[in-house]
What we know:
Layout: H1 3-8, H2 10-21, H3 29-35, E1 51-55, E2 58-60, E3 63-64, E4 76-79, E5 84-89, E6 92-96, E7 100-105, E8 116-127, E9 132-136, E10 140-153, E11 157-171, E12 174-183, E13 190-193, E14 202-204, H4 212-221
Parallel strand pairs: 8-9
Antiparallel strand pairs: 1-5, 2-3, 2-4, 4-7, 5-6, 6-8, 7-8, 8-10, 9-10, 10-11, 11-12, 11-13, 13-14
Amino acid sequence: MSHHDESDDPRRRLLLQALAAGAFATGLPIVSTIAAPFGNIPGKLPPERSIYRLSGRVLVNGKPADAATRIGPRDTIETATGAEIVFAVGQDAYILRGGSKLVLATQPGQSEIANLLRVLAGKLLAVFGRGVHDIETSTATLGIRGTGVYIESDPEQTYLCTCYGTARLAANNNRDSRETIESKHHDKPRYILNKADTGQYIRPAPFINHTDVELMLIEALVGRTSPFSFPSDDYTAPRRGY
């Protein structure tokens, strides 16, 4: 079944509306019925759990992870090609795709919050609680607030979609190349390049490889709803491109 067919399934449209309305947090019986064909019901993870789901080979601090593995604010998560992990740390939640390496760290005096992230390689979708979080990639330094972001990082460029919220962008190799993004709904995706002519380090980019459904899923894992919703039965928001 294609992504289009799945998204047009009437049950999936109901599931999207339930996610947008925060129904998973209420434990309504209808949610279980709607969600059953699509896998585990997303809801706020209990305190003793970090991982919602994983597939393939995933390492946490160099050791193979399973559903019982705890992830803290100073841990390193790596995924093999084709693997994926969906997890939460505190009020932040993530989808880390295959072939990725993410280092969580803390700012001085804030030992319980992973407010410094290093996306050393790969693809990350993340939503964050209150406060400012800093993200470092090979080509960019990002400061974000009240934000959902999607990042793809490699040595030559960073792809950033500020799905909602505020992001401050700076190119690592040209600190005069800066931009502040205010986004309500995937408004201004950007590439931040490793090498470019002056004034061209930050460039417009297309929307790629993440969906509103995924954002609503990880917001639900930390007990929040997304800042957008679907007022009708028609899902016309972006779909993941692979």
